[in-house]
Automatic annotation (TrEMBL):
<dbReference type="InterPro" id="IPR032466">
    <property type="entry name" value="Metal_Hydrolase"/>
</dbReference>
<keyword id="KW-0456">Lyase</keyword>
<dbReference type="Pfam" id="PF04909">
    <property type="entry name" value="Amidohydro_2"/>
</dbReference>
<feature type="domain" description="Amidohydrolase-related">
    <location>
        <begin position="109"/>
        <end position="416"/>
    </location>
</feature>
<protein>
    <submittedName>
        <fullName>Amidohydrolase family protein</fullName>
    </submittedName>
</protein>
<dbReference type="InterPro" id="IPR032465">
    <property type="entry name" value="ACMSD"/>
</dbReference>
<dbReference type="InterPro" id="IPR006680">
    <property type="entry name" value="Amidohydro-rel"/>
</dbReference>
Length: 424
């Protein structure tokens, strides 16, 4: 096999040394430096066995010293395999104590679900909830799927009112029509009176307005959260005492370039719902508009979905909580981000135990729920998340019982009194 190494004006020989290295001899001008070349060699070290020092390849070449009295002698390690970030899935060698959590320590009220996305019946869902110690789930439907609050009630809360409650499904496409906010306000009042809606189900502004369907053309006249045309609806929600789950922006990384420096690169490609279209408001502008709404409507209770899209920056979230007493949070399956900062996150949740609620999002299965319980309850180190989307190991927060009780149910029952009438 021909040697992959060469240096101008030198004799270069190489022989295999084990499975992952070469012993390389370079004989050339004594006492001078030469450029050793090996196309494709990078991301690895080589060792000058005479000078006892490590050298680093610079995209297929490295400057070496030839001693005055002998040839240069090098240990050159093979370049690493070119593994895609999507294929990198190492088997951990680290072994630490494990304490999987198969059932929540205390009863859970999940305020953020979209059970309409599955064909599961209420009875089938209740069986899973009983296994996991989930006492009640608030579920909302999607107007863009032509679903209504009545659909959530018919399938779940009417069948098992002690275990499910409907969230109001609002058709935000009405917002830009003349009289749209008044029509939305009237429908919300009807949903509360007729279907027992306990909150306004998850609504979105990811930078293109509340009436943006999330795909396809961007609205020509986007209606943002603080648009005066929505005031009548916010006033109605305030008067009814109906909290609103607001999904403001996506995770911070989604607003940054999709390149090798983006920590969410794998998720951006593997989770299509994470993708943003070009244009729209910045992450900061979305939240600034929401915060202006909170100030203008101090009796409006807002539950920020997914830890306000800022689980990586709990300092920003904490600042907003201090400024706006009518702002609350729900986890929204952002436990994995908390699990990257377990001590900081645990302190945050302890300080704000009365302002954070448990929410799961979509149709959580057993694996999704128990992973969240394990992050919140255990002090396990470096355990792997389910699936292949997130590259980071998880660390348990080990929350104390009083914080878990508040997070799992007490805050929800206090904030949404209508839940208490149907929760054992």
């Amino acid at each position: 096999m021909s040697s992959p190494f060469h240096a101008d004006g030198c004799e270069v020989t190489a022989e295999r040394f084990g499975e992952n290295a070469f012993l390389v001899t370079v004989d050339g001008p004594r006492g001078e430096q030469v450029l050793l070349k090996a196309p494709g060699w990078r991301h690895t070290k080589l060792t000058d066995l005479v000078a006892k020092r490590h050298l680093t390849w610079d995209d297929g070449q490295v400057l070496i010293d030839i001693p005055a009295g002998r040839p240069a002698w090098l240990m050159v390690f093979d370049p690493p395999p070119q593994v895609s970030i999507f294929d990198f899935d190492p088997d951990p060698v680290l072994l630490t104590p494990r304490s999987p959590v198969e059932r929540a320590r205390f009863p859970v009220v999940d305020i953020h679900a979209h059970l309409c996305l599955a064909s599961q019946t209420a009875a089938e869902r209740v069986a899973l909830m009983d296994e996991l110690n989930i006492s009640l789930v608030v579920t909302s439907a999607f107007a863009e799927r032509k679903e209504t609050t009545a659909d959530s009630a018919r399938r779940f809360s009417d069948v098992a009112p002690g275990r499910f409650r409907a969230a109001a499904t609002v058709d935000w496409s009405l917002a830009s029509r003349p009289g749209g906010a008044a029509l939305m306000a009237g429908r919300l009042a009807s949903d509360v009176a007729e279907h027992g809606a306990v909150l306004v189900g998850e609504m979105h502004d990811k930078g293109f307005g509340v009436d943006d369907p999330g795909a396809g053309p961007v609205p020509e006249d986007p209606m943002y959260l603080d648009d005066p045309r929505l005031d009548e609806f916010w006033a109605a929600a305030s008067d009814l005492g109906t909290p609103v789950i607001m999904h403001c922006g996506d995770d911070i990384a989604f607003y940054r370039p999709w390149d090798e420096r983006n920590e969410a690169l794998r998720r951006l490609y593997l989770a299509p719902w994470s993708r943003r279209r070009s244009g729209g408001l910045s992450h900061e502008e979305i939240h600034d508009r929401r915060d202006r709404l909170l100030t203008r409507f101090p009796r409006l209770t807002v539950i920020a979905a997914h830890l306000d899209g800022c689980a990586e920056r709990l300092d920003l979230v904490e600042e907003r909580l201090r400024r706006h007493p009518n702002l609350h949070l729900e986890l929204g399956a952002r436990h994995r981000t908390l699990a990257r900062q377990p001590r900081h996150a645990a302190r945050f949740l302890e300080r704000w135990a009365g302002r954070v609620l448990f929410g799961g999002d979509k149709v959580q299965d057993r694996t999704a729920y128990t992973e969240q319980f394990r992050v919140l309850e255990s002090d396990d180190d470096a355990f792997r998340p389910a699936g292949h989307v997130e590259p980071w190991p998880l660390y348990g927060l080990g929350l104390p019982d009083e914080v878990l009780r508040a997070l799992y149910s007490e805050t929800a029952l206090r904030l949404i009194p209508a839940l208490s009438r149907h929760t054992a």
